[in-house]
Amino acid sequence: MAQLNAGITHEAAFNLLSEHNKDPFHIEHAETVEQTMRYFAREYDPENEEFWGIVGLLHDLDWEEHDDDPMNHTIYAAKDIEAAGGSPELIRAIQTHTSDFNTSLPRPELMMEKILFATEELTGLIGAAVVMRPSKSVMDFNVKSLKKKFKDKRFAAGVSRDVIRSGAEMLGWELDELFARTIEAMQSFAPDRDSFVAE
To answer: pTM for the whole thing?
Structure first.
């Protein structure tokens, strides 16, 4: 695998995220996707784990400030990432996850981009389902429970089931496999156990 260069450090990426996101929920989502990406990087592309992580951390950089303009989601972010020293490959990887909204953006090609596309919305669905559980923990969550929530269109209605299905297809995985592996990824760092501390 070729070495990928983000152009910015993890610390600089987190500072950039904090500059544009004030809602703790958005920071937590960014960190959840970062850790999910790192989990899969360790399996598929270990030497680029840091790059995968930074892609996950910054994937929704502009969402809080521009959620009223989904067509240009990640286009606003590109300018801020570039100004902070982020590389063209970092910007490209981030923009692939909104190529379903805006077909002028690049489609996912690398394994990393496909994983981001497939798991980003799914981590949100799992997070929403976990909060409803008595344990409030992902540790006792399973595929059967996730399938129920996935089928219930009214639950976490903002989560696009079509994007999740397309992501599984891109990866050549059955939905059940994507569900199981994303739950395992989230269990590996159990974000619901971490108390959020604002910077």
So the answer is: 0.93
pLDDT in tens, 65-98: 998 888 899 999 999 999 999 999 999 999 999 9
The tens digit of pLDDT for each residue in 104-148 reads 999 999 999 999 999 999 999 999 999 999 989 999 999 999 999
> DSSP labels for the chain?
------SS-HHHHHHHHHHH---HHHHHHHHHHHHHHHHHHHHH-GGGHHHHHHHHHHTTTTHHHHTT-GGGTTHHHHHHHHHTT--HHHHHHHHHTTTTT-TTSPPP-SHHHHHHHHHHHHHHHHHHHHHTSTT--GGG--HHHHHHHHH-TTTTTTS-HHHHHHHHHHHT--HHHHHHHHHHHHHTT-GGGSPP---
